[in-house]
Amino acid sequence: xLNTNLLMQSGALSGEPLDRLLAANGDPGVLxxxxxxxxxxxxxxxxxxGSFKAFRxxxxxxxxxxxxxxxxxxxxxxxxxxxxxxxxLRAAGLTFTIPQGMGKTVLETETMTDVNDAVTSMxxxxxxxxxxxxxxxxxxxxxxxxxxxxxxxxxxxxSRNGGSPLDTTTAELAGRKVAEKIERxxxxxxxxxxxxxxxxxxxxxFTSTIGYTLTTPVGxxxxxxxxxxxxxxxxxxxxxxxxxxxxMLYVSPNWDTYLDQDFKAASDKSIRERVKSxxxxxDIKTLDFLQSYDIVLVQMTSDIIRMVIGMDITTxxxxxxxxxxxxxxxxAIMVPxxxxxxxxxxxxxxxQI
Length: 353
Description:
The chain is an alpha+beta fold and 353 residues long. It contains 9 helices and 16 strands. The chain is globular.
């Protein structure tokens, strides 16, 4: 349990923003002060058992609890709209949470080789190969994705005196930009951070991702059979790398022109329905940040990809210019971890024309 006196002595409940953040061991709640119903300032911090507790603080708070809720709702709503791939990974349970992620810069993991097959014999006396897996350490950087915005003290006063809520447009844009960056990093559309001997890589720029050349779609009647053949070949490439699904198929927006057309003349199935019926395929989804006619087939298991979460999307606040400017930072520590075995085998196949 957190001790209020210890927090006060350490400076976590008062002092400069950076000092408070360091004293609170990186807990972002210390930079989210709010005005309680009694008019005093409070912060809510996570305790050692995972629960949350409110503490009264000496730090002056600007926003009421409802103001924070308004901002958080706007930012999260804008973020969710742009996190299609990340949302799928989280829904599938493909996450790894790092408590107090602000206090860590890399995640150290291992890749492992397989061992030889078992043997059969009638009396059990035949010796099987005596081996063991080999391990290799890898580092994954844990960068912060962030975007700033601000309100003047006058904007906040006008909001209170007029009885109207704060204009959350800027906050929504900040949340959207953070979400877009995380989505692009997870897909591999943006170059990831290099730090500590490791690199952040997404699905399409991961060094072990299997490449595949797609056929250019020409004419609606021919697209269905050709796309089916391409996806089957991509699945076969994953299986050849010893990864057997289940898979998600992600396509660029250009494929939407074709996917809902008939698979063949007078067919009772669309191209989407026919391709989706491939054994082991979970679903077909469109990703905004895939370009041209790109397609990604990814095995949805934690040994292939997972989101490492050191801090979920959150908003921090501090004052400058004598308190006349209220600064906000939307930030998150959310990093994709694409994975392969020690021999470079993975279940990610990237199709391009």
